[in-house]
Amino acid sequence: MNTHSPYFPSMLLFVITLLQVAAFEEGDRAALQAFKSMISHDPQGILNSWNDSHHFCEWEGITCGRRHRRVTALNMRSKALRGSLSPYIGNLSFLREINLENNTIQGEIPREFGRLLRLEALFLSNNSLAGKIPANLSYCSRLTVLALPYNKLVGRIPFEFVSLYKLKRLALHRNSLTGGIPPFLGNLSSLELLSLGANSFGGNIPDSLGQLKELEALGIGGNNLSGTIPHSIYNLSFVEIFSVPQNQLHGSLPTSLGLTFPNLKYFQIDQNFFSGSIPISLSNASKLEVFQIGKNNFSGKLSVNFGSMKNLSFLNLYSSNLGSGESDEMGFMNSLANCSKLRVLRLGGNQFRGALPHSIANLSNQLQILALGDNQLYGSIPSGIGNLVDLYLLEMEENQFTGAIPKELGKLLKLQGLDFSGNHLSGEIPSTLGNLSSLFQIFLNNNNLSGVIPSSLGNLKRLAYLEMFENDLSGTIPEAIFSISYLSNSLNLAENHFVGSIPPRIGNLKALRSFDVSNNGLSGEIPIELGLCSSLEDIYLGGNFFHGSIPSFFRTSRGIRKPDLSRNNLSGQIPLFLEALSLEFLNLSFNDFEGKVPTKGIFANTSAISVAGCHRLCGGIPELQLPKCTENKSSNQRISRSLKILISIVSVLLGIVMLSFFIFSWHKRSRPSRQPSEPMIRKALLKMSYKSLLKATDGFSSTNLIGVGSFGSVYKGVFDEDGTVVAIKVINLQRQGASKSFMAECKALKNIRHKNLVRVITSCSGVDFQGNDFKAIVYKYMPNGSLEKWLHPDAIPQRDREIEIQKLTLLQRISIAIDVASALDYLHQHCQEPILHCDLKPSNILLDNDLSAHIGDFGLSRFYQAVSNPTVSSSIGVRGTIGYVAPAEYGLGSEVSTNGDVYSYGILLLEMVTTKKPTDVMFEGGLNLHNFARMALPDHVMDIVDPILLNDDEVLVGTDNHGRSQTRTNSTLECLISMLRIGVACSMESPQDRMNITNVVHELQSVKNILLEPKTMFNKQTDN
């Protein structure tokens, strides 16, 4: 080659350039191969195309530049990849975008990412990334989008990010980040979105955020933020989304709120401590779509005019303490008639007073939820409510409504839930209710309704709950009711004036679990067809005029646990077959039974039976103090005439006393107690002084604070007398509903005993040293904390960890699931009256020294069988926690029965297997945890379960002849599939499709046996 040619330098430069390009391209290929090598699981085979038969620019998920053939984008979004990130990605120097969202990438974000100087967008959301956010990402000075939500990142937001001046979107929500919100974020003047919600940030909101003039969305909810919102933030005129719920913020809203936020669409400040009035200037927020301020301490009249909010779809003012007490303050509802897109209107749990305006008929025809319960509303229910044809939930319970139930309700053909309980409604039940073929539950109890039950209700073939107790209904029970084979949970007609007999057609209700017709005027014999109700558990027939003997169907009705046949005219002998039944309580009092009382089975427990007032009975166990049974007449003849007269007089006097008591009880309209008078049931919870609790907690020191809930704080306490360690829940009586919560929890826990329920030691109700009311409950201390901490240990700040938490094994998780299901089964099936927990979630499952699970926090619980004090057993507002409460019952609160708890349990079980929270941001656009698990069954289960379960040391069962580990992969997978199937079955949208909790216990026990069986077999083989 002629080196002296004038073209030689150009040719040399060209060759060098080609060599450099080839070298750079080979570097990109090597970096991508390194990425592939770190991916351990690729169920969709995405990386199969990454081979030498194609140029890497043609590989799936890769985008290259047209000019340089260098990698500019790596997009593997939602490919179900599992593995970790290779640091060699940092060699892709032309990379502008990385999108690995919605996978299961573990490990830390490589520091080498800081070498990607051209990087503009980094999407790593919804993975399992851990560790700290690398500070040298700040070298990526072109970054406009940094999205790392829904991971397990810890630590603080790096101060070095102050140099990312081009950043427009910073999303770090759903991690375990700590510290305060750094003030330097206010210097990132290009920010349009700042999302830091669901972390553990504390302290105040920095004033500097008010400098973000381009900000459109601010999301900082679900943290531990306190103080007030800086006024400068309210001047950010571009803000469309303002979301700060679930913090400890206080203060009032500025009067100019609706003027300074002219573009406001979403306003969410629920579950804080805001006070004052709702600014009338919000009337100008014409773009508002969601307005959610529930569970705060607002006050005063609501004077906002909603008429300009054409796009308003969700208005939630629940439990905000609103209301001025004026005679009529519901005028604001007139303006809601202009909100044509309104779907949810929740005004319950406030102090609104007044009559419902007739303009309610003009509300949006898209309205699905209308919840007005627990206010001070009066007057009649407007007939125009029948225009709201899209309603599927109508709640007006616990008000002062009078007049008749409008017949126009018969137009609401989509209605699934109707609750008018606890009012003063009168007149007859309109027959048009029979048109509502979608109705799942009707609650009309505790009113003054009269007349007969319309036979048209027999058309409600999907009805599972029918509760009309404590009214003035009369006539016979229509046979049509007993044709509703779907009626499975409750038929409660107690405390009325029904006459006649129970129709034989009751045998059609084979799925019915609870039947209550106590305190009526029913007569005839107890129909043997009740024996066909094979699911029946609770049967209350007391306070009627039934005669005849105890029917033989009880012999084969193995599910019945608490029959109440008291205060009737039943006669004959008590059959011996009752000894063989697994009864929990048997009330036969005040009948005309005669002969010998059995002594075995339930009759051996005086606290579980009652035969009071049955004067012709004899024998039984000595504790019953009945006369001995005699074998011949001669002994009877030896009784003196004077003694017989004395006995007759005493019997008459006793009868008069009992009759007077019965008349008094009837007049008071109180429900008969079905609770056994066992010594173990305390007359009242033991009391403890404020002083002793103050001392035990070192003055309620923050160092002893172990948890904060909706209605109070929980402290660890030690009593000096004996060194007993306890948990003390101090009720925050400033929160609306807190006192109700205290009473509900005391009532729920005082008479129940189960190894998997947190035990109440005592309570305290008095005043503190300042004379303020003080209420607290003392529980047995659970040293291993909550299940929440064990499922999501990375979310706990290191300073708050009292114990070293490791990942739970599969066997431990199954055992915990069995414990929780057993406790629910007890609450729903085995208590004197079914108890609904209403807020089942990981943070309410507590673990003892042996990691045995105990359900706690009964502050939202209620008795399903409403008893003599409707205030205590009534609803305390919206029940449950978002994500764990059943969508189909949203708005029904705890009125939804045991099926609501079963749904929550299903979500809990799915979370235990996947460690995915139901509130994850990945669950949007119709996807939820239930569907996420259902779609993975059965072939993709390994893709969604917690990876630790696939590397569980307990999976190892031994070694083969060559010393290699033998595994039980098949049985592990079988167990995981079974657990997911059970979780999916419990969390079905339709309550009637959900799994029975008793069956859950049995099936999970079988799953546990499968997991343990291989180890047992191996041990037997080695023994030989």
UniProtKB/TrEMBL annotation:
Major enzyme class: transferase
Subcellular location: Cell membrane; Membrane
Transmembrane segments: 645-666
GO cellular component, one term: plasma membrane
Residues in the signal sequence: 1-23
Lineage of origin: Eukaryota, Viridiplantae, Streptophyta, Embryophyta, Tracheophyta
Main location as per UniProt: membrane
Designated name of the protein: non-specific serine/threonine protein kinase
Record-listed E.C. numbers: 2.7.11.1
PANTHER family: OS04G0122200 PROTEIN, SERINE-THREONINE_TYROSINE-PROTEIN KINASE CATALYTIC DOMAIN-CONTAINING PROTEIN
Domain of life the protein comes from: Eukaryota
Catalytic activity: L-seryl-[protein] + ATP = O-phospho-L-seryl-[protein] + ADP + H(+); L-threonyl-[protein] + ATP = O-phospho-L-threonyl-[protein] + ADP + H(+)
SUPFAM superfamilies: L domain-like, Protein kinase-like (PK-like)
Molecular function (Gene Ontology), one example: protein serine/threonine kinase activity
Organism of origin: Citrus unshiu
Binding annotation for ATP: 729
UniProt cross-references to InterPro entries, sorted A to Z: Kinase-like_dom_sf, Leu-rich_rpt, LRR_dom_sf, LRR_N_plant-typ, Plant_receptor-like_S/T_kinase, Prot_kinase_dom, Protein_kinase_ATP_BS, Ser/Thr_kinase_AS
UniProt record similarity statement: Belongs to the RLP family.
